[in-house]
Amino acid sequence: MENKNRNKAVKKIGILGVFTNLLLLVIKLIVGIFTRSQAMIADSINSAGDIFASLMSFIGAKLSSKPKDADHPYGHGKAEYIFSELISISMIIASLVMIHSSVESIIFKKNLTFSVFLVIVCFVTIITKLILYIYTKSQYKKYNSILIKASMEDHRNDIFVTLGTLIGVCFSLAGLYFVDGIVGCLISLWILFVGFRLFFDSYKVLMDTTLDVNVQEEIKKMIDKYPEILHVDSIVTKPVGSNHIIILKISMDGKKLLEECHKISGMLKEDIINKFEAVYDVIIHVNPH
To answer: How confident is the model at residue 211 (pLDDT cuts 50, 70, 90)?
Structure first.
């Protein structure tokens, strides 16, 4: 039920992001081209990237919510991280295009034409994105989805991006038109940074990185409560979407009956699953000592 609600929330955020960013893209692009504001054009390209990100979030949530089958015994949870990789790559490409455009505007001294519409669009975008950010952050805290995190960071970044655009517009009133191009570069570099950060967050899961060391230490403390377990031979964790499978090797007295060893390992498994929400399954192998 939890995963169902989680995927439903991601889909809702994805659809909301597509329509909101599409509207902002059209407005920003028209005003940006009309006023020749590189910061606003960069902002509009960022919105185009946000549309792609929202679509990827929706598709990723749809695929990751598919139940396990014969070919995917642990479900389709990793689809969420594959699509977050695509989102990060789109952000990186968009930022590089924006950097080129902004640098070009500085070199060739392309001046923007001040318009009150630039200011209005900036304020509308900031307010809209602030509302979306607050909502998406609440959903991320609730469901801890990397796709929701990507959307949340997009909305947060857009607030700072548009604030930067507004600064460039204000400086244009004083005749400092080059500030617009500089702001466009700074916006692009910020998006580039966020893109790489999201890429490596997803990469770590796809490359089967282990659970947090602190969690492993807590598991060892739980094992210490079982005097029958003489030694922890190894703890290996494998991510499955946003959850983990724990492969645990422990040692018990070789003279104990198989039934008793199975009972103890079953109790330990239940304790671990009940303790950690992020644990999908626990596989325990008992070695004779």
So the answer is: low
Architecture (CATH level 2) of domain 213-288: 2-Layer Sandwich (3.30)
β pairing state of 229-240 and 243-252? antiparallel
3-class DSSP state of 204: helix
> What are the pLDDT digits (tens) for 97-145?
778 877 877 777 666 666 788 788 888 889 998 999 999 999 888 887 7
Question: Is the per-residue pLDDT at 161 higher than 70?
Answer: yes
CA–CA separation, 30 and 89 (whole Å)? 26
Strand-pair partners of 74: none
What ranges do the domains of the chain cover?
A: 2-206, 213-288
Return the structure tokens found at 3. Answer: 């995963």
Q: State the number of CA atoms in the 13 A half-sphere of 198 facing the CB.
A: 31
Q: Do domains 2-206 and 213-288 have the same CATH topology?
A: no
Segment (H or E) for 232: strand 229-240
| 3-state SS class at 125 | helix
CATH dotted code for 2-206 = 1.20.1510.10
